[in-house]
Design a protein that fits this description.
- By secondary structure, the chain is mostly helical.
- The protein has one domain.
- The chain contains 3 helices and no strands.
């Protein structure tokens, strides 16, 4: 078995800088992926979009759990 590496100590300032960078990137990311929405609209209009009830249920549950984490 390989030895476990020692944890890396990150200065508090670096943690703050990284958190600020992540926050900036998240705020610049749209809540709606318009490209995906357009793609799905086209599939639906062409009658080529199908999804199972299991997939819908799974997505709803994942979304509910993600919302609780926020």
């Amino acid at each position: 078995m390989e030895p476990v590496p020692e944890p890396v100590q990150v200065p508090e300032e670096e943690n703050i800088r990284l958190a600020q960078q992540i926050a900036r990137e998240l705020s610049a990311t749209p809540d709606i992926r318009t490209e995906r929405v357009d793609e799905l609209k086209q599939l639906i209009e062409a009658g080529e979009y199908s999804i199972s009830a299991e997939m819908v249920t799974s997505a709803i549950i994942r979304r509910m759990l993600a919302d609780r984490i926020r």
